[in-house]
Structures are given as C-alpha cells and as structure tokens.
Amino acid sequence: MPSPTSTTSAARWAAPGRDSDGVAFGFDSVSRGIGGQRDEAGALRILHEAGETVVGAGEPTATLRATRFEVLRAAVGRRSYDQIAAWSWDGVALPEKVVLGMFAPPRETPLEE
Question: Do 52 and 44 touch, CB atoms closer than 8 A?
Fold first, then answer.
C-alpha cells in the first residue's frame, strides 16, 4: 500500500471534509439525541447546508441555523454554551439541550480550530 506521503495517494489519505458522509451520519445520530433532550421545550428545527431537520416532540419552538458539522461538534462537548448561544437562533436557544448529556458540561472556553 502506498504511504500517506506519496503524491499518487495523497487524495486517498486526505482528511474527510466537513460535508463528508461521516459528518452526515454523526449529525443524524446526535440530532436524535438532541431531540430526546428537549422534553417539554418542544421540537427544534435545524436549518443546515443539506436542508432542514426537525428533532423532538411537538411543534418546533425554536429554529437553529448552523452547519451539521457545528451541531455535531457541539453535541459532543466541543463547543461552549456561550458559543452555542451565539449561533443564529429564532425562539429560545437552550444551548444546554444541544450538548448530549454524556458529554455535559461542555467546554468552558471556546475551542478555536
């Protein structure tokens, strides 16, 4: 097998992009968890680069505009509550409902990547 530094195989070894199948799969998985945490807060509408996803029970009480990558990273504790609250929201943000319970509390300081 060619090494990762070989120019003929460089594309094969490149890190997957933020719009990769892995990000889509991860987003689908964590968004169900986010919906399950919203309880009486109502459903959350997430508007992202691939369309719209509604998670949780009932009618949407909030709308979030963010990429699937950012939602995925936030759900696993890689974004602070302040970073999540600063996203584009309509309705009550409830950033603590975006971070999955097993990863809470999230970072206290912003993570710059």
Answer: no
Q: Residue 8 pLDDT more than 70? A: no
Residue type, 27: F
Q: Distances in Å between the alpha carbon of 15 and those of 11, 43, 45?
A: 9, 33, 29
pLDDT tens digits along 42-97: 999 999 999 999 999 999 999 999 999 999 999 999 999 999 999 999 999 999 99
Tell me the whole-structure pTM to 2 decimals.
0.79
Residue from 23, 42, 58 nearest 97 by CA? 42
Q: What is the CATH number of the domain that holds 88?
A: 3.30.1050
Closest CA to 102 of 23, 33, 53: 33
The range of the structural domain enclosing residue 76 comes to 19-103
| Amino acid identity for residue 79 in this structure | R
Are 99 and 74 in contact, with CB atoms under 8 Å apart?
A: yes
